[in-house]
């Protein structure tokens, strides 16, 4: 009869299990935080309902068809950029990242877990906002695959910018800067007002911003039913490559 071996066998869990556990913790932290919930859910829903119902916009067709793609872009920015920058900045300040770096979960694993958490929260945002927009009478057009690709490119671009800010600035500066950028891009990025209302000389600059490219691309697909918007996609890809490249070189974990 073989004797039972009760000796402990310490060792790290498989990487997928560690990433899933950390991603779950990240998601719970986002959804339990009042400021995060305000940014990710409440503000986008209020903007969607308010600008779809109130006669504040003079756009061709139904107002909700114009507003819905812009609010989807805003949801991506609020989670991938603003929320992630603030949370990561304070995690770095309080030594959370340093302590996590000492666990079996590697730094690439931690970044992967954060990415999974951002994508999961965005999926929830898109689902909620889409249901609200459909109730308001939204009729989306175009290929949803193109819209999904634009959302992923936008996530990469905004995540890179958020990590770049969180990894180089003090937590207080990140908090102020991320909220300021959020408000500026909300007003200038074509989220609820068309870029055509701004002076013609400024439009190329606004269209070259990641939020401007994302709103333009999503409206081209979901409101106009066009094919793949190559121009906005290229703008987002460039922002993603530059921001993620700089973030990987300059990010400080302590």
How does this model look, in words?
This protein is mostly helical. It has one domain (17-250). It is 74% helix and 0% strand. The chain contains 10 helices and no strands. The protein has helices at residues 15-32, 34-53, 63-93, 96-101, 107-135, 144-168, 171-188, 203-208, 210-222, 230-250. Helix 3 (63-93) runs antiparallel to helix 5 (107-135), helix 3 packs antiparallel against helix 9 and helix 6 (144-168) packs antiparallel against helix 9 (210-222).
Features:
mainly alpha, globular, 254 residues
Report, as a whole number of angstroms, the end-to-end distance. Answer: 54 Å
Written as H for each helix and E for each strand, in order along the chain, the element string is: HHHHHHHHHH
Helix count equals 10
What overall geometry do the principal axes of the alpha carbons give? globular
Q: Name the beta content range.
A: under 5%
CA-atom Rg in angstroms: 20 Å
Structural class: mainly alpha
Poorly predicted regions are: none
Main sheet specs = none
Mean pLDDT: 86
Q: Which bin fits the share of residues in helices?
A: over 70%
In quaternary terms, these chains amount to: single chain
Overall number of structural domains: 1
Give the strand tally: 0
Summarize the structure.
Helices cover 74% and strands 0% of the residues. With 254 residues, the chain is mainly α.
